[in-house]
Amino acid sequence: MAEVAIQGAGIAGCALALLLARQDHTVTVFERARFLRSGGQAVDVRGAALKVIEELKLVEEVRACRTHFRGMSVCDEHDNELERTTERTLSGGRFNSDDIELFRDDLSRILFSAGSDFVTYVFGDEVVSARQQSDCVSVELRNGGERSFDLLVGADGLHSGIRRLAFGRDEEYVHRTGIYAGIYSTSNSIGLDAWQLVFRTPERGIIVYPDRSNDQLRVALYFADGEAEPPLQDTVAQKCALKAPFGDVGGRFRTLVAELDRADDLYASEMAQVRMQRWSDGRIVLAGDAAYCPSPLTGQGTSLALVGAYVLAEEIARSTGDLADAVESHERRLRPFVEANLAIDLRTGKGIDDAKNAIAI
Ligand SMILES: Cc1cc2nc3c(=O)[nH]c(=O)nc-3n(C[C@H](O)[C@H](O)[C@H](O)COP(=O)(O)OP(=O)(O)OC[C@H]3O[C@@H](n4cnc5c(N)ncnc54)[C@H](O)[C@@H]3O)c2cc1C
After folding, report:
1. Among 99, 157, 116, 126, which Cα is nearest to 5's?
2. How far, in Å, CA of 15 to CA of 107, rounded?
3. How far is 101 from 95, CA to CA, in rounded Å?
4. CA distance 256 to 183
5. Structural domains in the chain, sorted by start
6. pLDDT digit string (tens) for 5-53?
7. Considering only CA atoms, which residue is closest to atom 27 of ligand 1?
8. Among the atoms of ligand 1, which is closest to the Cα of residue 14?
9. Ligand 1: does its nearest atom lie under 6 Å from the Cβ of 32?
10. Selection from 314, 319, 259, 256 nearest residue 16 by Cα
11. What phi and psi values does residue 250 have, to the nearest 5 degrees?
């Protein structure tokens, strides 16, 4: 059995850890945050990814957490209602779909909990260097110490540290769209009841909805600015950059934008895509957004992360201990699915119905 290190306890990392632990591999996950990250809005599990959830035997838990929105109001920037519908929402589309929409933190908690008895999760630490040897990969950890593993997986998101160590600078792989988004939680002071509130133009937008209990709101702000550099690390700078385009908004939107200052779970990101010719180098392989982020504009990031983790784990199970071979065959099998998803039209979503099923699980 192999010793596997995974960097990143997100959707790809937790799913892969669970799958490999079920094959009796020894799995250690290094997560930079000090706890499993919460926050975020709703994500979608679609097409082939639904099969992965079935294979993981987590369908009931995932279905139990699905969102139950009643509809949405589309408003102008002053909070005047322009349109009202009970047939669809902005986040999940029409209500008559088999796809499952759930909050990202519900999904990550389900995947984490299912594996936590068998996987070693190390929070507040990360790999700072990785050296490939003939029979292992040796890593140095931020908090000190060296460890050796048979395989190192970078499942550490859009700005992956493992990708930087093994493949080079973000600029070579991260394709910017010039659209930035910030998602944060605040109390439901405006009394939204399973309802979405949307202000949307091509240049900027606000999407608001309550969590499953209606206690808290998850607010997303986005704006397009081809010139702006993303402030990646500094939360204060991120908050300033996010608030700036919304100085003129009125009504409930004004209150919600002001709440950003108090948010402690801000997830700020550029709506970028990651495109790579290869996802592996020897005993280092990337998964999820780190390797093939399709951008949140496609709504397919979570499904790609689940399917990618599943295919990698399945090819490892099929190989007779030859991890290099397993990683190669995983790349060959997954590539058409990833390419179909990276080709989804970012403005209209066209292509998603074919792309979500473009692989057999
Ligand atoms: C808090 C949060 C909220 C999100 N909200 C949304 C949302 O509302 N809508 C949406 O479409 N997508 C959202 N995403 C992104 C979405 O989860 C991914 O696009 C998709 O699910 C693919 O998952 P992933 O596991 O590849 O990446 P992610 O889910 O981003 O997980 C990556 C993990 O790696 C960790 N990490 C990063 N760098 C390091 C490092 N150097 N060392 C160790 N660990 C590291 C991160 O803390 C994170 O836990 C969110 C991500 C996060 C982390």
Report:
1. 126
2. 10
3. 10
4. 12
5. 3-67+100-174+273-355 (3.50.50.60), 179-270 (3.30.70)
6. 999 999 999 999 999 999 999 999 999 999 999 999 999 999 999 999 9
7. 157
8. 25
9. yes
10. 314
11. -125, 180
pLDDT at 158: 96
pTM: 0.96
CA 279, 283, 287, 290 torsion-angle sign: negative
Cα distance between residue 289 and residue 249, in whole Å: 33
Q: At what angle do helices 11-22 and 104-115 cross, to 10 degrees?
A: 20
What ranges in the chain are assigned the alpha helix state H? 11-22, 48-55, 59-64, 104-115, 161-167, 235-243, 251-258, 289-292, 301-318, 323-342, 352-355
Q: Is the pLDDT of residue 228 over 80?
A: no
- Rounded Cα distance between 40 and 124, Å, is 20
Pairing of strands 174-175, 273-274: antiparallel
Residue of 240, 211, 241 whose CA lies nearest to 223: 241
Does the beta carbon of 52 lie inside 6 Å of ligand 1? no
Tell me which of 6, 7, 30, 37 to substitute to probe ligand 1's pocket, judged by most ligand atoms within 8 Å of the beta carbon: 37
- 13 Cβ closer than 6 Å to some ligand 1 atom: yes
